């Protein structure tokens, strides 16, 4: 399985140039309860649908950036530096639903 990602510095490259940094998570605020901290550190949504992810251009410039990708099809919707990323959108009702 292969697809192309757009590095904000280098442009389009094969996914094998990049390292996957995992889905974007929300850091707990304040002093979290043990259960909340445990969920933040160890659990992921593993969504079947569009999710926001961290990627690093491992074989290139080394930049960390964000991407939105459909995990069912590997369609990359956009990539951007964190400061340039569009605001997170509310999850659509159809996201994650089986096709
Ligand atoms: Zn790059």
Would you kindly provide a written description of the structure presented here, covering whatever features stand out?
By secondary structure, this protein is mainly beta. The chain has one helix and six strands; from the N terminus they run βββαβββ. The chain has one domain (4-84): Folate-binding superfamily (Folate-binding fold), CATH 3.30.2270. Helix content is 9%, strand content 33%. The strands form two sheets. A four-stranded antiparallel sheet has the order 3-4-5-6, with no helix packed on it. Strands 1-2 form a two-stranded antiparallel sheet. The two termini are 20 Å apart. Bound molecules: zinc ion. Zinc ion (ZN) binds at residues 7, 9-10, 57, 60-61, 63.
CATH homologous superfamily classification: Folate-binding superfamily
In percent, how much strand structure appears in the residues? 25-35%
User: What is the annotated CATH architecture?
Assistant: 2-Layer Sandwich
List the secondary-structure elements in sequence, H or E. EEEHEEE
Question: What ligand molecules are bound, each kind once?
Answer: zinc ion
**Approximate shape:** globular
Number of domains: 1
Tell how many strands the DSSP assignment holds: 6
N-to-C CA distance: 20 Å
CATH topological fold name: Folate-binding fold
Largest sheet: 4 strands, antiparallel
Low-confidence stretches: 91-99
Name of the top-level CATH class? Alpha Beta
Strand order of the largest sheet: 3-4-5-6
Report mean pLDDT, rounded to a whole number. 90
Radius of gyration: 15 Å
Given the structure, what is the number of helices?
A: 1
Structural class: mainly beta
Helix content: under 10%
């Amino acid at each position: 399985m292969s697809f192309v990602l757009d590095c904000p510095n280098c442009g389009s490259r094969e996914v094998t140039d990049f390292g996957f940094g995992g889905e974007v998570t929300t850091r707990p605020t304040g002093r979290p309860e043990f259960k909340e901290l445990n969920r933040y550190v160890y659990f992921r949504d593993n969504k079947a649908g569009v999710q926001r992810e961290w990627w690093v251009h491992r074989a290139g410039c080394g930049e960390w950036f964000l991407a939105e990708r459909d995990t069912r099809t590997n369609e990359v919707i956009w990539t951007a530096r964190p400061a340039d990323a569009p605001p997170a959108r509310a999850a659509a009702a159809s996201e994650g639903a089986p096709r």
